[in-house]
Every structure is written in C-alpha cells, then in structure tokens.
Amino acid sequence: MPSRKSGSWSDSTGLAQAILHDRTERRKWLARMTLVPLAMLAIGLWVIDRWIWASPWHVLLWWGGCTVATCVVMVFALYDALAVIREERAKERQNVDPR
C-alpha cells in the first residue's frame, strides 16, 4: 500500500472542511480573500495603469481578473451568510422545549 503524500486530495479536502465548518476560520479567510480584489484594484489604478491601457487585451484580462476575484469573494460571503443562518437555526432547534 503506497503512502500518501502530504499534499494529497484527502488532505486538501480535510483542510477545506475545517475552514468551511468553523465560523471564525471562515471569517478570517473571507477577510484575507477580500484583500485580493482590493489590492488588484489599487495596483491597476495607480501602479500599472499605463501598462493596462496600452492594449485592449490588457484591460480585458486585468479587469476581468478583478471581476473574477470579486465574484469569488461574493460567493464565499454568500456561503458564509447561509452557513450562519443554518448554524443559528440548529441552535434554536436545540434550545426549544419539547413540551
């Protein structure tokens, strides 16, 4: 039986489950992920703006990448909101008196 590498699929899915199921860890990752599109926006506006506007392809690729990064953050935020609703409903069900 071959030994698994530390970067195997099961390790990655275990890490993802740990992040997604813990509210504080999810919020930390969401905050870090939010910085990516913000940094891309700032870099695109002030640092490499001449390079971006030199070609229509540069504009499309750079701002398309910003759009994709922003959409990923929004989907993760939506997942977080739905997970919080699910967690709070589960807490309410546990606290209800069965009279």
Description:
- The protein is mainly α and 99 residues long.
- The chain has one domain.
- It contains four helices and no strands.
- Helix 1 crosses helix 2 and helix 2 runs antiparallel to helix 4.
- The relative contact order is 0.10.
Query: How many domain modules?
Result: 1
Mean pLDDT: 86
Which sequence of SSEs, written as H and E, runs from N to C? Answer: HHHH
Radius of gyration: 20 Å
Strand content: under 5%
Q: Strand pairing plus helix content: what structural class?
A: mainly alpha
Envelope shape: elongated
Quick one: biggest sheet? none
Please work out how many helical segments DSSP would assign. 4
List segments where confidence is low: pLDDT < 50 over at least 5 consecutive residues.
none
Number of DSSP strand runs: 0
Distance between the termini: 55 Å
| Fraction in helix | over 70%
